[in-house]
Automatic annotation (TrEMBL):
GO annotations of cellular component type: plasma membrane
UniProt source species: Paenibacillus beijingensis
Region (Disordered): 22-49
Protein name (Swiss-Prot/TrEMBL): Membrane protein
Domain ABC transporter substrate-binding protein PnrA-like intervals: 56-334
Length: 382
């Protein structure tokens, strides 16, 4: 996502104060060091209805839409953009973070007006290229660096994570839940914390055992991590990667599982609870429209569930009706602005009180979170 390393946390605080799991530079999911362009070059000279040229738009993906998760959801957003605005975007898949990304962004900037980078690890590369092409608009998923021609965008997935945890908390039979975490960065940490708070809201005795895969998409490694948790006795398994490996491992043990990013029901329909989903389409449409009409300004966008950028997938067929009703009621409270996930009292896993009764956690503190809440088993690597 996509997401950064712990050494950049302080910078995040400054970024959110000034305006606002991205992928890490350690991504293992890229399947090629030679990116492949999968869409035709856009018809740059095709006029729009108002006789203005349609902007030339490009998307850069860390993986492929076939991952069934993160990249798939971004690609669905691209398809919505194309359908609504009549734009044929250029897509470049399997772009590793680092030097390759900077090369790809440079090449695209010579041919396009708008470029979307959908992995956190693209941040520095995109920022560097943005300085060289001030007339091109760059939009970066989950990062924190901005420029006059570069914005960031993300959704508050901790809101949906709380609901997923609520469902898991109602369905666990032994109060032991497992979580296969990706990288130890704030986005992953605050999502796991929100999930845990949701589970504990129905049963404070629940524990969430966390193991780190240090991957975004590596089904073999993620499956191994999942099995290690199942061997410890967890009866529900959640994960933060782009693959359904953990969900499938849980199903093979006749345990309930939770996916990530996109509706993963199809991978284990008899053992599926739900998961966080992103809906990027409306953001992509609105962003491009604002560029076309001249109202676009650089920003750090962190969209809410009410805005539709995050939500949960439909609950699985074997989730009891009372659980579905409870989750929907809490979801409505979030939509109505009546419930804040990170509202005190909140204690960390060492028993230290982080938030007093009724105190809300500030955005900059969420975005720089490096600690686990009470009830999580496992550590945040330093």
């Amino acid at each position: 996502m996509r997401k950064g390393l712990l050494c950049i946390m302080i910078a995040i605080i400054f970024a959110i104060t000034a305006c606002s799991s991205g992928k890490s530079n350690e991504t293992t999911g890229a399947s090629s060091t030679t990116p492949s362009e999968t869409s035709e070059t856009p018809a740059a000279n095709e006029p729009a209805a108002d006789d203005k040229q349609l902007p030339r738009v490009a998307f850069v993906y860390i993986g492929v839409p076939g991952d069934g998760g993160w990249t798939y959801q971004h690609d669905q957003g691209r398809l919505m953009l194309e359908k609504e605005l009549g734009i044929k975007a250029t897509v470049v898949e399997n772009v590793p973070e680092g030097a390759d990304a900077e090369r790809v962004f440079t090449e695209l900037a010579q041919k396009n007006d708008i470029i979307f980078g959908t992995s956190f690890g693209y941040m520095d590369a995109m920022y560097n290229v943005a300085q060289k092409f001030p007339k091109v608009k760059f939009l970066h998923a989950t990062g924190y660096k901005t420029a006059p021609n570069m914005s960031t965008y993300m959704g508050r997935e901790y809101q949906s994570a709380y609901l997923v945890g609520l469902a898991a908390g109602k369905m666990t039979k032994n109060n032991q839940i497992g979580y296969v975490a990706a990288f130890p960065i704030p986005e992953v940490i605050y999502t796991i914390n929100a999930f845990t708070l949701g589970a504990q809201s129905v049963n404070p005795d629940i524990t969430v055992d966390v193991v780190w895969s240090n991957t975004w998409f590596d089904p073999t490694v993620e499956r191994q991590a999942a099995v290690s948790l199942l061997d410890k006795g967890v009866d529900i398994l959640a994960a933060y990667q782009d693959s359904p490996a953990s969900l499938q491992a849980a199903a093979e043990r006749d345990k309930f599982g939770i996916g990530n990013d996109s509706d993963m029901n199809k991978y284990a329909p008899d053992h599926y609870i739900t998961n966080n989903v992103f809906n990027w389409g409306p953001y992509y449409v609105n962003a491009v429209k604002s560029i076309m009409d001249g109202t676009w300004k650089s920003e750090s966008y962190w969209g809410t569930m009410k805005e539709g950028i995050v939500d949960i997938a439909p609950l699985g067929k074997n989730v009891p009706e009372d659980v579905k009703k409870l989750v929907e009621a809490k979801r409505q409270e979030i939509l109505d602005g009546k419930f804040n996930v990170f509202n005190g009292p909140i204690f960390d896993q060492d028993g230290k009180q982080r938030l007093a009764e009724g105190e809300p956690l500030k955005d900059e503190d969420i975005l720089s979170m490096t600690w686990f809440v009470k009830g999580i088993v496992g550590t945040v690597p330093k």
